[in-house]
């Protein structure tokens, strides 16, 4: 993945999954002017998470919501005259990976439930390696994910394929929220800097309460 020196000013918060960053790559090497960086490296080949936050957006990293068992990074976002809300970024390796965690969904669920009990609004993003376009026979992890989304009343905002190859189109990357009424727009854009498409959502500043 290549990082540019600048991002459009419209981006207040940019999340990256499967960064492949490690301790040999210093923050200064991937610095983006006007943004602060939060990262969680896997510590071995592959994986890893990073979030760039524009300097005028107040955030707090919530280490208490993170787990050593799965790749997740949580930020609490503060807006003027609004309640704070949580943004969680996740990466789940495919089941065939040596780094796959069998208990990913159960750990993910426990952290999500704790977050839901303490915050009214959650936005979860990342690559969960479950094809949410696929019907019929799916993996047990994908069945668990779908059941979890239903139980926690999480809307999946992305409806188009996010990984398109010569032979397949899959929806692996998600934006999930329990407050879809606060989201003005969302979608998929091709930026041609990754094998995955770029997904986005725009959250309202002045919103109606559910």
Description:
By secondary structure, this protein is α+β, with helices and mostly antiparallel strands. It contains 2 helices and 13 strands; from the N terminus they run ββββββαβαββββββ. Strand 6 (85-91), helix 1 and strand 7 form a beta-alpha-beta unit. The N and C termini lie far apart (38 Å). Mean pLDDT is 89; it is low at 1-9.
Structural class: alpha+beta
Strand content: 25-35%
Based on DSSP secondary structure assignment, what is the total number of beta strands? 13
Q: Segments where pLDDT lies below 50 for 5+ residues?
A: 1-9
In short:
With 210 residues, the chain is an alpha+beta fold.
Notable features of this structure?
210 residues, alpha+beta, six-stranded mixed sheet, three-stranded antiparallel sheet, 31% strand, globular
Task: Draw up the topology in text.
Blueprint: E1 13-17, E2 35-40, E3 49-54, E4 58-61, E5 71-78, E6 85-91, H1 104-118, E7 122-127, H2 140-151, E8 155-156, E9 163-164, E10 169-170, E11 173-177, E12 183-189, E13 198-203
Parallel strand pairs: 6-7
Antiparallel strand pairs: 1-3, 2-3, 4-5, 5-6, 7-11, 8-11, 9-10, 12-13
């Amino acid at each position: 993945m290549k990082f540019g020196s600048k991002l459009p000013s419209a981006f207040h918060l940019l999340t990256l999954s499967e960064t492949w960053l490690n301790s040999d790559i210093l923050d200064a090497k991937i610095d983006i002017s006007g943004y602060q960086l939060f990262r969680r490296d896997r510590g071995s080949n592959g994986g890893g998470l990073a979030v760039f936050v524009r300097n005028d957006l107040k955030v707090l990293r919530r280490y208490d919501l993170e787990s050593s068992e799965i790749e997740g990074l949580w930020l609490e976002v503060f807006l003027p005259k609004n309640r704070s809300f949580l943004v969680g970024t996740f990466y789940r390796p495919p089941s065939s990976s040596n780094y796959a965690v069998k208990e990913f969904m159960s750990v993910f669920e426990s952290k999500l439930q704790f977050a839901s009990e303490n915050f009214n609004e959650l936005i979860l993003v990342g690559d969960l390696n479950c094809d949410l376009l696929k019907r019929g026979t799916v993996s047990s992890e994908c069945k668990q994910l779908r059941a979890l989304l239903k139980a926690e009343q999480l809307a999946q905002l992305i409806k188009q394929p996010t990984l398109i190859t010569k032979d397949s189109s899959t929806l692996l990357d998600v934006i999930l929220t329990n407050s879809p009424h606060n989201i003005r727009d969302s979608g998929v854009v091709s930026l041609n800097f990754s094998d995955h498409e770029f997904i986005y959502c725009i959250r309202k500043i002045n919103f109606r309460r559910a």
